[in-house]
Please model this.
Amino acid sequence: GSTYNNDSWKLSKWESIKALTFEYVNGDSIVFDIHYDSASSNVLRYIVETQKGCRDTLDTLLVVHPYPIAKMELPFSVYCQDAPSIFIDASESPTGRYISYWSFSDGGLDTNFTARADSSILYTFADSGTLGIRLITETDYGCRDTIDSTFVVNPIAEAQIGTRTLEKCFLNNEFELSDNTLYTGSFDNQWIVDGTTYDNKGSFNVTFSDTGRQVFYLITVTDVGCRDTIEASLFVAPEPKAVLVVTDSSLCYDNHFFKLECQSTVPSNATLTSRSNWLFEDGTNAYAKIIPNKTMSAAGTFWVRLIAETTDGCKDSIERNIEIYPE
Model:
């Protein structure tokens, strides 16, 4: 718009020099729209003249930038639930891509501010089904174009593992594993257990070669190639090492006694029970870490057995003889 002091307008004229078009407006209207049919650089001249014939002219350059043509590429032949998927902004523009705005019908959004350098994004679908996708591509001049598409996200065979402990103590450890995968179609499975691969097993028994927490995996693959993996673990309990020590004794029958002590050991990933189990040849037994004064009813050689047990129920035993001399 123009300003003036002591005169009123006679006319206000806009002139698009390149297009040779003229637009006239009265003195009360100083805003109007002009449209160009193609990308171009245009000189726009504004002429204002008062009733007394005084005029002023202002030239400005209007650059009309081209719209991009929105295109998207879906490089995967199959899209799967819970799997990172690639989407590419393949839009065309003489000025190049600048920003890509992606929206998905499951509510997800992604904005790629580095589309000029890398036009791809990664997106993961939590659910399966026929979903929509929209790409708005924008040039660095703010010109936009939009494209919509639909595609199918295939379901995974949701891997589920069932376990049953048959024997958890290491020497005879045995566990039953079951494929409890949730899927209505056909799929293959693969187990990775203790460094060994097992294909297409529904239920089977395994043993482990070491103690402690043992991790294993079940991988499922549907008929269209959608994969799922689940990790699980089982605890293989170590056995203790039974150690029986006679810490003090008197061997002659009249005053004989034996002080017996359990000094059994266990690996750091297990714990001994608070009491040890003692069995004696004379038919008696005891539950303690230390037997301070064990006696027998006669002279002779007798066996003593110590059973060490962990809180997981794993056991080891040791037996030794004690001898009592007659007077």
The radius of gyration is 44 Å. The chain has a mean pLDDT of 87. The longest strand covers residues 40-50.
